[in-house]
Amino acid sequence: MNCNDAAALIAAYADGETSLLQSHSIRRHLQGCAACAAQLEALTTLRTRIRAEAPRHSAPPALRARVLATADALSQTSATRRRADGDRWRWMGGGALAGSAATLLAWFVGTAIIEARVNEDVAVEAVTSHVRATLGNHLIQVASSNQHTVKPWLSARLDYSPPVPDMTADGYTLVGGRVDYLDRRPIATLVYRVRDHNIDVFVSPSRSRLAPSDLRAVRGFNVAHASGADMEWLAVSDVNAAELTAFVQKLAVDAGPR
Amino acid sequence: MSDPKRFEALVVPHLDAAYNLARWLARDAHDAEDVVQDACVRALKYIASVERGDARAWFLTIVRNAFYDWLRRNRPAEIVPGEDEAIERAVDPAAIDPEQAAVRLSDARALSDAIAALPLQFREVLILREFEDMSYKEIARVADIPVGTVMSRLARARGLLQRSPLLQLIGGQASGSAS
User: Fold this and answer.
1) pLDDT (tens digit, 9 = 90+) per residue, B110-157?
2) Residue where a domain terminates, one of B28, B53, B79
3) Among A189, A200, A248, B164, which residue has the least CB neighbours within 10 Å?
4) Which residues of chain A are within 8 Å of residue B170 when distances are taken between CB atoms?
5) What is the second-level CATH architecture of the domain A61-254?
6) Residues of A in contact with B6 (CB under 8 A)
7) DSSP conformation letters of B95-148
8) Is the pTM of this model over 0.95?
9) What is the ipTM of this complex?
10) Choosing among A67, A135, A137, A218, which should be mutated to test the B contact, i.e. which has the most B CBs within 10 A?
């Protein structure tokens, strides 16, 4: 092997991409050729420096948590689909499916999940919505701490007008709202923040076929429900269960006439 | 295995690799998170199609595609079609103040800066090779180029780094000037 042949193969040799025969020939050439040996040396030094000095960035814990939570929420969704019908917690009944709602959802996880949504547990679905919103940075469509901004924004996009209680006195800051989809209907979603936790509150007009109030944990997220002011209130968050329950009950009460 | 279980088993273990690639391509922590999130949503959608032994290259291909889609939406000016043009547009070594470069020699970030300054198509093959230890064949698949192009781009990436005035690499070129 001469220097020209070696030069063409040195990088591949350094990368472990040469055949046994090629590697053997290169090693023999390098023993007698200082110039080519130096070239290999330069490559290995560059590699050593890159590995020592250039950081291999690790996924930030928050990103990892969001991704894991999504997978968790989805696996809960699949589990729910397999459960018997009687075990279902029907939060809202009825509600004709708008085809456009299904289309809007399609971008996320494809048809499998949409099929699952037809019959799935609303609590699990709410957690999935919450996680999806967080994951996609879609948590807030209207950012405002002013209830008089959020309420008309939501009313303009829905066929009902959800109350937007001010909970500042209790330590919960309104940060905004969005229109999400739950039980195959567009639904008003209020976003409150306490300390560093986001709380999604899904607000929907009361239905006659209403399920009992309940508190559930779905893969680490708590889901609390309350009725009040002719609305159903479903809160989803990673704050602790007792606090979330107290919060959603207070919301439902404060939303009513005083 | 259900889709979410497959996702946890096949994709989540490669989250660091995904973020590292996105971070070096986008050169911004926040943008990299957006790219990885988008990639995860895509991966969830197509998770049924991936084989176990193939998961890392498959997922990194998705990350790379998500990055280029993101780039087209957010920084279309950074998309350069040809290699030569890309090198021309990259930092001109002559434009770097030697004094400044000398200061950087003691700076541990100099090498990172030099890698970040590489044109995109050279940076991506280098990251996949040096950080992920991928074979030429795997890199070819992720970057959607022939193996020969992987080799030539790696060579140019390394050459640009070795000649970068941001660095003082020992060894030099074929002359073997170091010690």
Assistant:
1) 888 899 989 999 999 999 999 999 999 999 999 999 999 999 999 999
2) B79
3) B164
4) 42, 45
5) 2-Layer Sandwich (3.30)
6) none
7) GS-HHHHHHHTT-TTHHHHHHHTS-HHHHHHHHHHHTT---HHHHHHHHTS-HH
8) no
9) 0.82
10) A67
